[in-house]
């Protein structure tokens, strides 16, 4: 059966279609899926588009940020309230790609893609998933990424997270061989809230260092409750590889990724190149 295209006018309708038919795939920005179509890897089934304005809605003025899954990287880059995420959004392809690439699509990107998901993971984001015609449920992003590998049923409607009280507490770094829009050798994001000169509730995440974006829990433990100084940064670098499972691909070898991760983590934590 050849590929078919359907249009849903509401997110509830889209969620119902996706839940009822596992062969239907949501076409959001299409930056990765259409490549599969054009290169013959996706030949049959149904592609579903959503025209509901809520799918691209942004609520960014308060302490709690809400972004629809259809919000594009260009929309993030152009929003002043999201200045702390501009580096992550602008790391996704070139200007034409950012006009199409969506937050929701990035959550499904296979490593070494998915750099924006790394930033969201460091921000402790919640994913809103809607199944059928019911209301959306909230799921921690790290839990969602694990469920994604098993096949998530329903529609990713959006993401929510708390805005950093201090933009300087959030840091993002993408390492690539081709600047500025190359595929990631790795990406690193860190949210390091500072209370009384010490880090509280540290969150650090990696991309391209495991099958999905992953928390760097050893680094978080090394930084928690510490001042961000030479001693704590050295401890973080020593714990950098804990829990990582990098792959060898056309971009970099497993060995290379392991070798350079502590170096780039140290640069992120010291603010080098910001």
Can I get a quick summary?
By secondary structure, the protein is of the alpha+beta class.
Outline the fold blueprint.
Layout: E1 3-8, H1 11-20, E2 24-26, H2 33-38, E3 45-50, E4 58-59, E5 64-68, H3 73-77, H4 86-90, H5 95-100, H6 103-106, H7 115-122, E6 126-130, E7 137-140, H8 141-150, E8 155-162, E9 170-176, E10 184-191, E11 194-195, E12 198-199, E13 203-207, E14 214-215, H9 217-223, H10 230-238, H11 254-270
Helix pairs in contact: 9-10, 10-11
Explain this structure.
With 274 residues, the chain is of the alpha+beta class. The protein has three domains: 3-50, Uridine Diphospho-n-acetylenolpyruvylglucosamine Reductase, domain 2, CATH 3.30.43.10; 53-162, Uridine Diphospho-n-acetylenolpyruvylglucosamine Reductase, domain 3, CATH 3.30.465.10; 167-270, 2-Layer Sandwich (Enolase-like, domain 1). It is built from eleven helices and 14 strands. It has a five-stranded antiparallel β-sheet. Helix 2 links the parallel strand 2 and strand 3 (45-50). The relative contact order is 0.12. The model has no long low-confidence stretch (mean pLDDT 92).
Tags for this entry?
single chain, 274 residues, alpha+beta, Uridine Diphospho-n-acetylenolpyruvylglucosamine Reductase, domain 2, Uridine Diphospho-n-acetylenolpyruvylglucosamine Reductase, domain 3, Enolase-like, domain 1, 5-stranded antiparallel beta sheet, 4-stranded antiparallel beta sheet, 11 helices, 32% helix, globular
């Amino acid at each position: 059966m050849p590929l078919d295209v359907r249009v849903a006018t509401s997110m509830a309708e889209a969620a119902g279609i996706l839940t009822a038919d596992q062969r239907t795939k949501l076409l959001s920005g299409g930056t990765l899926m259409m490549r599969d179509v054009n290169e013959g890897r996706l030949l049959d089934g149904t592609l579903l588009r959503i025209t509901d304005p809520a799918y691209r809605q942004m609520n960014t003025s308060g302490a709690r940020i809400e972004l629809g899954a259809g919000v594009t990287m260009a929309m993030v880059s152009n929003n002043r309230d999201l200045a702390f995420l501009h580096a992550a959004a602008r790391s996704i392809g070139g200007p034409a790609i950012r006009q199409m690439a969506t937050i929701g699509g990035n959550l499904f990107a296979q490593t070494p893609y998915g750099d924006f998901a790394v930033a969201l993971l460091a921000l402790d984001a919640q994913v809103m998933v809607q199944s059928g015609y019911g209301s959306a449920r909230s799921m921690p992003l790290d839990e969602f990424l694990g469920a994604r590998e098993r096949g998530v049923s329903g529609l990713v409607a959006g993401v929510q997270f708390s805005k950093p009280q201090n933009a300087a507490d959030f840091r993002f770094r993408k390492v690539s061989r081709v600047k500025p829009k190359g595929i990631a050798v790795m990406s690193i994001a860190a949210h390091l809230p500072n209370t009384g000169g010490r880090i509280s509730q540290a969150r650090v995440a990696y991309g391209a260092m495991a099958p999905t974006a992953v928390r760097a829990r050893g680094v978080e433990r090394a930084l928690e409750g510490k001042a961000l100084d030479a001693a704590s940064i050295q401890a973080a670098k020593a714990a950098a590889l804990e829990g990582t499972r990098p792959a060898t691909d056309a971009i970099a070898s497993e060995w290379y990724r392991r070798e350079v991760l502590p170096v780039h983590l140290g640069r992120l934590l010291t603010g080098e190149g910001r």
